[in-house]
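Sanity check

After download, print the first record. It should look like this:
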Amino acid sequence: MAGYEEDIKPLFRELDRDEMEWAFDLWSYEDVKEHAQDILERLRVGEMPCDGPWPAERVELFEEWMEEGMQP
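Expected structure tokens:
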């Protein structure tokens, strides 16, 4: 089972965090949990991160984390 601290947070680089800080903090479990659906939608269409889309495996890991209850 995927967890935020171990599996999800490391996917977000400092650059990603800085670019999104105006809306929420990608290094904050509570913020990512609250905005998870919006983040997933942007990841799926390649709008996030700002410098190019994630590989499919990363998007799938984020989606699995959500489906499994967004563990800390």
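If your output differs, re-run the checksum step. Summary of this record's structure: Helices lie at 4-8, 14-20, 29-34, 36-45, 56-67.
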